[in-house]
Design a protein that fits this description.
The protein has 18 helices and 14 strands. The chain has 467 residues and is α/β, with parallel strands linked by helices. The chain folds into two domains: 5-204, Rossmann fold, CATH 3.40.50.720; 215-467, Rossmann fold (3-Layer(aba) Sandwich), CATH 3.40.50. A six-stranded parallel sheet has the order 3-2-1-4-5-6, with helices on both faces. It is globular, with a radius of gyration of 24 Å. 46% of the residues are buried. The chain binds nicotinamide-adenine-dinucleotide and uridine-5'-diphosphate-xylopyranose. Residues 162-166, 225, 228, 232, 266-268, 270, 273-275, 277-278, 339-340 line the site of uridine-5'-diphosphate-xylopyranose. Belongs to the UDP-glucose/GDP-mannose dehydrogenase family. It is an enzyme of class 1 (oxidoreductase).
């Protein structure tokens, strides 16, 4: 079946960039991205490309090329479903905050609402593609809803998880390591799989397009994120040992990463992993394991999260200890709030937990992040509900200039690895800080030897030389 029109429900960090790239690479396919969030759709349609709701390097150019040609952003979900041969579901699947599985299971209410809406609207056969990350066997629930509430039309369900990482989304979409498509093994299932293979084959080499059964595809996504997060927690666990023994985590990472069986990527010690995926997907995996009575498996993966929480708390504890056991009334500057560089996304950013811990010790924080807005930062703190909004606003200030943010500070904490931090005038920063001037590098990006020559007292995560 040749796909002429694609609809994508959910214009977020995945739906927006993914569909923009499909539209750019497939000018013969009409791509309509829909969302119930009106302001998000308005931002995707804004003539000022700086106002796109998702910041990703290179995305503005792609949107500029395809938007209005074969890429459309709309709030008219019904119309887009009706028009499309293939419907991607790319809505959020957050951790449940209520009821059974609270704090662990994925909340599938948005997925179910989409399935019911597709069933209600569709008058012709459709291929429904799970783009969101879902627990293994969700496709059977979607199929059930579609078959029992639909208008008698045929649906094929495919699983096509997205492996892009934020900050490199465009690059990852243009040149993915692989595209994974899971589908039914029936003849109709094979036809549906082939339709989606044909879409990707417009720019991706065929040998990188992998097809599997639906359950393998769904589970591979959770597995990939669990393995990646596990590497970060493993190296972070070693960073503590480095600090105690005088070893250096960057040297250890390099030494083990040169073993081709281990590989060099994803071995950068940090203040902890963040982002909307790792924690949510591992908790989901833990929940699935528990629901099958596989407690040892559940415990094994849960340690990845426990280690990550430890790393975040350890970082703020260390700041307090080194600032003579009190940060009350002291000004601490945060460089970075995003969960990683080159994104404006702050979901599960370690900066939030570190700030919350320090604010509870009555520190005054000033934040500088090149892409994250002031409203976002306050919203992140308000969501925790640790203190009133007024208290958050009086204890934490947001600055749009790093030199103002560091003026009269007792300490600087690097929470995100933005490249520009390396090129600051550190002498000027030092001159304007209170002494002794401390730097806590939670991302291991600064040249601490140079900073120490200026006069800073530096604490580099995972380096045993000063801690
Ligand atoms: P997001 O929150 O940025 O976007 C989801 C969008 O879906 C929101 O704009 C929301 O308004 C919309 N939505 C929800 N219900 C809707 C409905 N019924 N009709 C229309 N629109 C609806 O989320 P995201 O980061 O894009 O993630 C989406 C999915 O992709 C999740 O399952 C996530 O786990 C997965 N994923 C995310 C990433 C990532 O880097 N963010 C990477 C791979 C996979
Ligand atoms: C992740 C997966 O990489 C991606 O394949 C999936 O589709 C979505 O989840 P993302 O969360 O966007 O992507 O970014 P990623 O680069 O994986 O980083 C996640 C977190 O781990 C960030 O906070 C990052 O700073 C941290 N990290 C990553 C480290 O601390 N050290 C590393 O070596 C790598």
């Amino acid at each position: 079946m040749k796909i002429k029109t694609i609809c994508c429900i959910g214009a977020g960090y995945v739906g927006g960039p993914t569909m923009a790239v499909i539209a750019q690479k497939c000018p013969h396919i009409k791509v309509i991205v829909v969302d119930i969030n009106e302001s998000r759709i308005a931002a995707w349609n804004d003539n000022d490309l700086n106002k796109l709701p998702v910041f990703e390097p290179g995305l503005d150019k792609i949107v500029e090329e395809a938007r209005g040609r074969n890429l459309f952003f709309s709030t008219n979900v019904d119309q887009a479903i009706d028009e499309a041969d293939m419907i991607f579901i790319s809505v959020n699947t957050p951790t449940k905050t209520y009821g059974k599985g609270k704090g662990m299971a994925a909340d599938l209410k948005y997925i179910e609402l989409c399935a019911r809406q597709i069933a209600r609207v569709a008058k012709q056969d459709k291929i429904v593609v799970e783009k969101s990350t879902l627990p293994v066997r969700t496709a059977s629930a979607i199929k059930n809803i579609l078959d029992h509430t639909g208008n008698g039309v045929q649906f094929q369900i495919l699983s096509n998880p997205e492996f892009l990482a934020e900050g490199t989304a465009v690059e990852d979409l243009l040149m993915p390591d692989r595209v994974l498509i899971g589908g039914d093994t029936s003849e109709a299932g094979k036809v549906a799989i082939q339709s989606l293979v044909d879409v990707y084959a417009n720019w991706i080499p065929k040998e990188r397009i992998l097809t599997t059964n639906v359950w393998s595809s769904e589970l591979s996504k959770l597995t990939a994120n669990a393995f990646l997060a596990q590497r970060v927690s493993s190296i972070n666990a070693m960073s503590v040992i480095c600090e105690k023994t005088g070893a250096d985590i960057d040297e250890v990472s390099k030494a083990i990463g040169m073993d081709s069986r281990i590989g060099s990527k994803f071995l950068k010690a940090s203040v902890g992993f963040g982002g909307s995926c790792f924690q949510k997907d591992i908790l989901n995996l833990v929940y699935i394991a528990k629901s099958y009575g596989l407690n040892e498996v559940a415990d094994y993966w849960e340690q990845v999260i426990i280690m990550n929480d430890y790393q975040k708390n350890r970082f703020s504890d260390n700041i307090i200890t080194k600032l003579y056991n009190t940060v009350s009334g002291k000004k601490i500057t945060f460089l970075g709030w995003a969960f990683k560089k080159d994104t404006n996304d702050t979901r599960e950013s370690p900066a939030i937990k570190v700030a919350d811990n320090l604010l509870s010790e009555q520190a005054h924080i000033e934040v500088y992040d090149p892409k994250v807005t002031e409203e976002r930062i306050y919203a992140d703190l308000e969501y925790l509900n640790t203190r009133t909004n007024e208290e958050n606003r009086s204890l934490l200030k947001v600055q749009n200039n790093p030199y103002n943010a560091t003026q009269n500070s007792h300490a600087i904490a690097v929470l995100t690895e933005w490249d520009e931090f390396k090129t600051f005038d550190w002498q000027k920063i030092y001159d304007n800080m209170l002494k002794p001037a401390f730097v806590f590098d939670g991302r291991g990006i600064l040249n601490t030897a140079e900073l120490e020559k200026i006069g800073f007292i530096c604490y580099k995560l995972g380096s045993g030389t000063r801690i």
